[in-house]
């Protein structure tokens, strides 16, 4: 770590209120050139709000900031970017109808002769993509790209800003191990070039690996600061949650002998995978691991009827129910909690009660009608059951990521499914919320449900699975029993 004595960014007494509710309570913070500072805290701690203040998305209610020794008060993200401050948001902000290059240079297109210089734009975008190992044409549309690839494009977009300060909000949430390493390489280079970086993540092991010091927030306050990153995970977590808590996985129940779900020689109708064969027993949790692009998400989407199947069978309790659409899968008892909860799992502009009710209308209708009161009562039961911190009438958009995920889980589990598939179930979720979601997953298995968990977090997939199927380049590389599965054995198969 090489830092200058004078900070490039200072915050003093930063407050932010929404009406009578104050969400930031007088935050002081210094960021130096050439250092990576971890900004940690549970969902709702104020991390994103503080980042949005720095990046010009949100204006503070009180307090002052300086940037490179001068007063700094951006009224819009453009002003922050022009000053040299860039941010990669946790929620993807790409425009699907534009090309990758157009998204990367949106609002700052290179010009030549008064016109957009598309060749230069494509060349520069290609360089940014290559730095992150993304082999895709900069001229293709963003529409249809995986969440992981879209995240890499967001990162490439930030890298082309030539910023002096970068704020990375959960940059690896959708990335696998190989992509994460490439990002770390870029962060190291930027640090050597004197760029200051604010790094927000719930993956505590990568915090210890890539950052220089740690700032912890809780309930809108800066509660602790560690002058180094190699502190015990327990100490970090206790500062985040204000109580003693370690990231631990519940004990797994012993699966039954009965096969609930069987996949026979399944082949993607979109060319993403082929030759997939596995079984999931009653009360078993099958983890699916692999690098980004291995075909994991595409496989579970096909099993849930969301993507077409070219060949093979999906059997439920020995009966062929190979789904042609999600409705077929749902009616037969297969439900999917998708990796992108905001785009695919929720209608964020609608209430919690409505979101839960939409997936369960068939059980709520009486004589051809469904009343709002019936939906609200049903929703409240499930809000309490799954520990959602919110009211039925509250919009889903107002919830933290962890509580949004609990709503998605609640709406499907209320149907009493036979098979539950969870794709990246804790993406972008804090330690406390992760623990409760792990408990929900294990409780499902204990009730005899067959569970599939797809995760890019190797510790997670190892911690919650009875067995792990590893995928590589669209093929099934192997299935490991819990006793044989570890970081090395999984990565050997994933990179084979």
TrEMBL record:
PROSITE patterns: ABC_TRANSPORTER_1, ABC_TRANSPORTER_2. Transmembrane segments: none annotated. SMART domains: AAA (SM00382). InterPro entries: AAA+_ATPase, ABC_carbohydrate_import_ATPase, ABC_transporter-like_ATP-bd, ABC_transporter-like_CS, P-loop_NTPase. It holds the Pfam family ABC_tran. Belongs to the ABC transporter superfamily. PANTHER family: CARBOHYDRATE TRANSPORT ATP-BINDING PROTEIN MG119-RELATED (PTHR43790), D-ALLOSE IMPORT ATP-BINDING PROTEIN ALSA-RELATED (PTHR43790:SF3). This is Sugar ABC transporter ATP-binding protein. It comes from Fulvimarina uroteuthidis.
């Amino acid at each position: 770590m090489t830092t200058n004595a004078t900070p490039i960014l200072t915050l003093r007494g930063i407050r932010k209120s929404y009406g009578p509710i104050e969400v930031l309570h007088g935050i002081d913070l210094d960021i130096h050139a050439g250092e990576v500072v971890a900004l940690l805290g549970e969902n709702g701690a104020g991390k994103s709000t503080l980042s949005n203040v720095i990046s010009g998305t949100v204006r503070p209610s009180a307090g002052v900031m300086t940037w490179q020794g001068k007063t700094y008060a951006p009224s819009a993200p453009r002003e922050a970017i022009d000053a040299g401050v860039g941010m990669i948001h946790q929620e993807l902000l790409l425009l699907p109808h534009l090309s990758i290059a157009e998204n990367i240079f949106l609002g700052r297109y290179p010009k030549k002769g008064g016109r957009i210089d598309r060749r230069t734009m494509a060349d520069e975008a290609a360089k940014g993509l290559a730095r992150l190992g993304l082999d895709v044409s900069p001229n293709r549309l963003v529409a249809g790209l995986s969440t992981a690839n879209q995240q890499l494009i967001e990162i490439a977009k930030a890298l082309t800003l030539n910023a002096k300060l970068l704020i990375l909000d959960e940059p690896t949430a959708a990335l696998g191990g190989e992509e994460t390493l490439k990002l770390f390489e870029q962060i190291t280079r930027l640090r050597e070039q004197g760029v200051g970086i604010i790094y927000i993540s719930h993956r505590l092991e990568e915090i210890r690996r890539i950052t220089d010091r740690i700032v912890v927030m809780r309930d809108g306050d800066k509660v602790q600061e560690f002058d180094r990153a190699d502190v015990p995970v327990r100490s970090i977590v206790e500062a985040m949650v204000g109580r003693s808590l370690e990231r631990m996985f519940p004990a797994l129940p012993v699966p039954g002998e009965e096969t609930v779900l069987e996949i026979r020689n399944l082949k993607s109708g979109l060319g993403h995978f082929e030759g997939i064969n596995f079984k999931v027993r009653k009360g078993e949790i099958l983890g699916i691991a692999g690098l980004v692009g291995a075909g994991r998400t595409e496989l579970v989407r096909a099993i849930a009827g969301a993507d077409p199947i070219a060949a093979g069978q999906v059997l439920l309790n020995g009966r062929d129910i190979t789904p042609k659409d999600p409705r077929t899968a749902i009616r037969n008892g297969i439900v999917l909690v998708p990796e992108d909860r905001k785009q695919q799992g929720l209608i964020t502009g609608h209430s919690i009660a409505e979101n839960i009710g939409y997936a369960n209308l068939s059980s709520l209708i009486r004589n051809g009608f469904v009343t709002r009161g019936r939906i609200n009562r049903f929703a409240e039961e499930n809000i309490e059951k799954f520990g959602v911190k919110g009211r039925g009438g509250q919009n889903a958009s107002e919830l933290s990521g962890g509580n949004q995920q609990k709503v998605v889980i609640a709406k499907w589990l209320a149907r009493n499914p036979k098979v539950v598939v969870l794709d990246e179930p804790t993406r972008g979720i804090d330690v406390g919320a992760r623990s409760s979601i792990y408990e929900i997953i294990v409780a499902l298995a204990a009730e005899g449900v067959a569970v599939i968990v797809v995760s890019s977090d190797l510790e997670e997939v190892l911690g919650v699975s009875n067995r792990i199927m590893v995928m590589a380049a669209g093929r099934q590389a192997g299935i490991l029993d819990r006793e044989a599965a570890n970081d090395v054995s999984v990565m050997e198969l994933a990179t084979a």
